[in-house]
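Action item from last week, closing it out:
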Amino acid sequence: MKLEYWNKNLTVDEAYQVYARLIKEYTGFEIPGQYRLLHHILPESIIYVPSYLLAAIRAAELDSHMRNRFGDTWWYNRESGKRLREIMKPGAQIDLSIFSKLDPDIFLMEILN
């Protein structure tokens, strides 16, 4: 969104439209573009902004993926480190379908337990 904002010299309202379109495209959620401002004014609030919630869901899904593939103590497994480096290397084209369905239930179970 920021690249498009700067490269196309968008107005703030146009940037909101881009943000809303990208959130819908990548998450399936319809969120007003103005919500991107919440990231800047609520980072330490109890109210989580959309980007933080999405990151928390993705992190919980990645943990679940790693547990399923390498066991409950996956962080001790040398192969899991290789797997994480492969997923997270600079410039990696991450195929989220390998571990992520953007399933909030995984995250909710984590915080409820």
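Closing note: The chain has a mean pLDDT of 80.
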